[in-house]
Amino acid sequence: MENDKLKTNQADSYDASKITVLEGLAPVRKRPGMYIGGTGLDGLHHLVWEIVDNSIDEAMAGYCDKITITLHKDGTVSVEDNGRGIPVDVHKATGKSALETVLTTLHAGGKFGDGGYKVSGGLHGVGVSVVNALSTWVKAEVKKNGKLYVQEYERGVAKYDVKVVGKAEGTGTTISFQADPEIFKSIEFSFETILNHCRQQAYLTKGVMVTVRDLRDKNVNLSSDTVNETIEVSDDDTENPEVHTGRGHLGGEATEIASRLGPREYSFCFEGGIASYVRHLNKNRDAIHDNIMYIEKEENGVNVELALSYTDDYKEHVYSFANNIYTAEGGTHLTGFRTALTRAINDYAKKNNIIKGESLSGEDVREGLTSVLSVKLPEPQFEGQTKAKLGNTEVRTIVDSVAASSITMFLEEHPTDAKKIIEKSLLSARARLAAKAARETIIRKGALEGMTLPGKLADCSTKDPKRSEVYIVEGDSAGGSAKQGRDRTFQAILPLRGKILNVERARLDRMLSSEEIKALIVALGIGIGDDIDYSKLRYHRVIIMTDADVDGAHIRTLLLTFFFRNFPDLVTNGHIYIAQPPLFSVSKGKEKRWVYSDHERDLAVKELSKGKDNAGISIQRYKGLGEMNPTQLWDTTMNPENRVLWRVTMDDAERADEVFTMLMGDQVPPRKRFIQTRAKSVKNLDT
Asked: How confident is the model over 452-497, as pLDDT tens digits?
């Protein structure tokens, strides 16, 4: 009851005086990309994020504990929360209601002056006004003062003044909108994308119940396995609500719940916060110690929340956030954490005579680390328009202090866990030294410096990396056809023999012992490990070209794993491509069509038959690139004027990491479930 009274008092004091206006809304429809990043699917979903962020801000301020996102049958989306409700009284600066001011004025919100939000993710205050400007229709409903207030808008313009349409219990805001098809290439929202985003926000805002509902008639392209992984159901794939109990605060218990409420309705609420998040991230990995370390402490107005655990993996998996915004490039908070972790582990190890002499490096102590770092601060300074890096200098010192003392306490209170962590770090150090020796040996021979390119590489004549491309092909037969059919001016060919090493379970020293991987590294010219220099990339298009069969798909997956784990910037910067050789040639007389799917084959047969029988139709299935002669390979797969290339992108680093771990790691049950849930959808399986 006391909380309800406090919420009511805070709701009453949150009025128009708390809203600060900076400038107008005019530029949004003219240049939407400046505000939402683009007009593709990312930009479309950004509309939802902007509204959800406002509700999350209410939750972080302590006034909201329920958020519901609904995809409606008519294509509209609504976001409802039980926060204080957007103020509806008249704003002095605009002469309009605060609700209309917020919905129709750029940089108007409770995030600039005093009394609105202490901590906020939507720092620019453009969120809901941008959604209004880029939608054909918006409806705002506010429960406040025992009344239900409503206002509707068309392409950013209010249809009428705010009006009372009835009584209401409690407080809260519901924003419903229809994205404008004149602005966006598609207005079809992805249930899975929204589900994953909201799950992440629920982890970062512990104790808040986030519900996602899809009421659309059409089937959603979302497999049961994806949903089950997303909501963390148990190994028996039950659809009943799951309750998991695990370590929360040091010495405390935390509970997390993820419920499937219906065919397309899910709720998330994680009392364990980011400790639950770490448990989720590690579900396909084996932890080397029993306890998840969890810290939450406020210092000088900055709230630091940190959870970490070590697994038997060889890679580091760290995700950092500032005011619930994912900082992909890290920043001062991540630097502070890494410094503290290295110092705390070294101090403990030396104090207890576990190591003597040379200290463990930061790379050593982070091998196998899974960690989530979340800081909340009043005035974050992000570097760049995308908010990918936190720049507040004071945050580094605060995180360093909080993390160092807490990690030290954890190690001292859990000596068995501490010993396992340090033993893994020592093993990493030995492997690092072995890899360094192997790398130096190769460098002495001139290989990694580009002085001696691999003999199997048929290089191109141009030295301009922007024009150059390298085809990584499967086997000598396909390599021979590709070498003869290519344009030697800008196309290089690197044939690989067999399947390369699965690097998901290999350290650098073992990778450098593989001749095929060594050839790949040398051909790229950018080094490996600590020596990577992307500016030395020799080819700006790295094209994977494998056979259209199961073995070819496996080789492609191994190569993608290699690039993703060792050269992630090649993926994020769009340098990795997958060639699409045709599956069939369909011919009749002198006419010949190259087609890339069973459906295209059937259409080609129909067109060439011209309504008659299929007499004279010849269909050839190409399982291997070596079955094509050089001219055919050039015409269909390598000629820039005709070829089809898929660019490999990575929109969701966490999801990509999860998929690679599941497909290529040691854990069999997740991979088994993945195969079982998709078995019926496989139309054609080569044997």
From this structure: 677 789 999 999 999 999 999 987 788 888 999 999 999 999 998 8
Q: Find the domain containing 96 and state its range.
A: 2-189
- Of 189, 211, 237, which residue sits at a domain end? 189
Mean pLDDT value across residues 131-137:
94
Pairing of strands 491-496, 469-474: parallel
Residue 625 vs residue 163, higher pLDDT: 163
Mean pLDDT, the chain, rounded, equals 82
Q: Which of 549, 635, 652, 654 is catalytic?
A: 549
649-682 exposure pattern, b = at least 16 Cβ within 10 A, e = fewer: eeeebebbbbbbbbbbbeeeebbebbeebeeeee
How many separate domains does the chain show? 3
Among 363, 551, 627, 652, the active-site one is 551
Domain at 352, CATH number: 3.30.230.10
Report pLDDT for 558. 87
pLDDT higher than 50, residue 625: yes
Whole-number Å distance between alpha carbons of 170 and 166: 13
Instruction: Please identify which of the residues 57, 547, 657, 658 carries the catalytic annotation.
Output: 547
Active site residue 547: yes
Q: Considering the domain boundaries, does residue 244 fall inside one?
A: no
Q: Which of 564, 575, 570 is nearest to 654 (CA)?
A: 564
**Which one is catalytic: 58, 313, 474, 516?**
474
pLDDT given at position 384: 65
Please confirm, yes or no, whether 551 is among the known catalytic residues: yes
- One-letter amino acid at 227 equals V
